[in-house]
Specification:
Order of helices and strands of chain B: HHHHHHHEEE
CATH architecture of chain A: 4-Layer Sandwich
Radius of gyration of chain A: 17 Å
Strand content of chain B: 5-15%
Helix content of chain B: 40-55%
Structural class of chain A: alpha/beta
Largest sheet of chain A: 7 strands, mixed
Distance between the termini of chain A: 11 Å
Number of strands of chain B: 3
Number of helices of chain B: 7
Strand order of the largest sheet of chain B: 1-2-3
Number of strands of chain A: 14
Helix content of chain A: 10-25%
Number of domains of chain A: 1
Order of helices and strands of chain A: EHEHEHHEEEHEHEEEEEEE
Number of helices of chain A: 6
Shape of chain A: globular
Largest sheet of chain B: 3 strands, antiparallel
Distance between the termini of chain B: 67 Å
Oligomer: heterodimer
Strand content of chain A: 25-35%
Largest interface: A-B, 37 and 40 residues
């Protein structure tokens, strides 16, 4: 395995549902760590959030607080962006109001769609999907390409498109995000092995280093699989308490007792990350070096 | 030193040979390249081939109607407001339902096509990973929902996941139409109109 995982967290490879009893660093002070370097690419990742619940709003408030110290410029959405009804007032209640401060600050959200999302969300301007179910874009700084997939409908045309995108991408970092996890310790859903059989060979062949997914309603950092680092970040508004199955052996770190989002930073060949819970606790952190040819 | 490494090619000859060798390499690699497989079932008989051809005509007709209605509506911009999205969706659904008011189950998925789909899906779902495959399809599957032709697919109901090998086996849909499972039923969904265009009941074997 060519990738090196360097954990700098105080919670080294600990199963982090014990995190609620640890640390206790709060809000912006906690979020200010990471390299937080000038010229880096700063992002956040959020999934399964669009409930309109107090949990979603409270986590959104933590995101706003974190943004004050760590000004991420884009947020990757890994699907289930709006649960239930999708009338105009739902877009407000489940997205525009909770993240208003971030939207006002110019943070751009890039969505992928989950199984609870209507396909028409691709036309919703703040989701930056350009009318497409799957798409890719070059990051505004650092050598990073993001690729968003529509994992509920991996038809051959999408897979062929993905292969072309990966093949032609010249960026050092190839980062893919979508809803269904290829690796997850969720008792409710778990790893989508059908999708894994299709996508993983392409990820390996074309140098994908990082994958963000959701669907399972908790936070999990999966131990690197064949050199690729996978995150499950389906805890943006929904939460399935006690749902991480420790017997899978997949978990490097996890939190299934509170909602959480992920912050990430690209500097050269290193991706640093920090997961923040609704309580403000830092529940995971570390860094990862991209795969090299 | 190997025999081959001692062969010296004059520079001028190399200039001529190299492009030819490069072209040959390209041709050979293109010939060996694995093209993405075509989507759709391989007909097991002439009768199945005719059924698939007939289905394609019916889907083409539906797609033409879909496009006609779409062209009559104000275009949805690539960056739309929730109000525009909602109005477009509901108006599209209303008009499609009106022009297909007389539609019946089997108009798109004829009985012969339904039987064909069941046969081919039975093969897909009888492999060694069939339990896993079924689990994937039934994950958050809206099994309790009643399948009604030409009615709006409820916003509250999640969409089933369509595994790659299932989509690979089904005829390709034109833009705007998708396959989904509702329980064990396979439905053809008109996405922009949020309507169920037709379905195959009990498409997945028990």
């Amino acid at each position: 395995m060519r990738a090196r995982l360097v954990i700098v967290s105080l919670l080294l490879s600990t199963i982090l549902w014990t995190a609620r009893a640890q640390d206790g660093r709060q809000g912006a002070a906690a979020a200010a760590a990471l390299p937080n370097a000038a010229g880096s690419l700063k992002i956040a990742v959020l999934g399964d959030f669009g409930t309109g619940s107090s949990r979603q709003y409270e986590l959104a408030a933590q995101m706003v607080k974190a943004h004050g110290a760590f000004p991420f410029e884009l947020v990757l959405l890994v699907g289930d962006n709006l649960y239930g009804s999708e009338r105009p007032q739902d877009f407000q209640k489940k997205f525009e109001i909770p993240y208003k401060a971030l939207l006002d600050a110019g943070v751009k959200f890039y969505a992928s769609l989950g199984n609870h999302d209507a396909r028409e969300q691709r036309y919703y301007k703040p989701f930056n999907m350009d009318g497409k179910l799957y798409y890719s874009f070059k990051a505004p700084r650092q050598d990073v390409r993001f690729i968003a997939l529509e994992s509920t409908y991996p038809e051959p045309a999408q897979i062929a498109w993905l292969e072309n995108e990966l093949k032609s991408a010249k960026e050092a970092w190839k980062v893919v995000f979508f809803h269904h996890p290829l690796y997850s310790s969720g008792e409710r859903h778990g790893s989508d092995t059908r999708l894994r059989d299709t996508l993983e060979p392409l990820f390996l062949k074309y140098g994908v280093s990082l994958v963000f997914t959701g669907h399972d309603h908790f936070y999990e950092r999966v131990k690197p699989q064949k050199g690729i680092l996978y995150f499950v970040t389906g805890s943006g508004g929904q939460l399935r308490k006690g749902n991480i199955d420790t017997s899978t052996g997949l978990t490097a770190a996890g939190l299934d007792t509170d909602n959480a989002f992920l912050m990430g930073e690209f500097v050269g060949d290193t991706f640093s990350f920090r997961a923040i819970a609704r309580s403000g606790q830092v529940v995971d952190s570390g860094s990862f070096h991209r795969r090299t040819e | 030193m190997s025999h081959l490494s001692r062969i010296r090619v004059p520079d001028r000859a190399a200039c001529l040979l190299l492009p030819i060798a490069a072209a040959l390499c390209v041709l050979v690699s293109a010939g060996c390249r694995k093209e993405p497989p075509q989507q759709g079932p391989v007909p097991a008989s002439e009768e199945e081939a005719r059924t698939l051809e007939d289905f394609q005509h019916r889907i083409d007709d539906y797609a033409a109607l879909h496009k006609k209605i779409e062209a009559e509506l104000p275009a949805l911009p690539k960056e739309a407001s929730p109000m525009q999205i909602d109005q477009h969706q509901r108006e599209f659904g209303k008009r499609m339902a009106e022009v297909r008011a007389g539609a019946r189950h089997g108009d798109l998925m004829t009985p012969a096509m339904q039987a064909l789909v069941r046969r081919h899906l039975a093969q897909v779902f009888s492999g060694k990973d069939s339990a896993d495959l079924k689990g994937s399809v039934m994950d958050e599957n809206p099994a309790g929902m009643k399948v009604s032709l030409n009615e709006r697919y409820p916003d509250e109901v999640p969409l089933s996941t369509m595994p790659p090998e299932v989509l690979q086996m089904l005829p390709k849909m034109p833009q705007g139409l998708e396959y989904r499972f509702v329980g064990r039923n396979l439905v053809i969904m008109d996405d922009p109109a949020h309507l169920i265009a037709d379905f195959v009941s009990d498409a997945i074997p028990e």
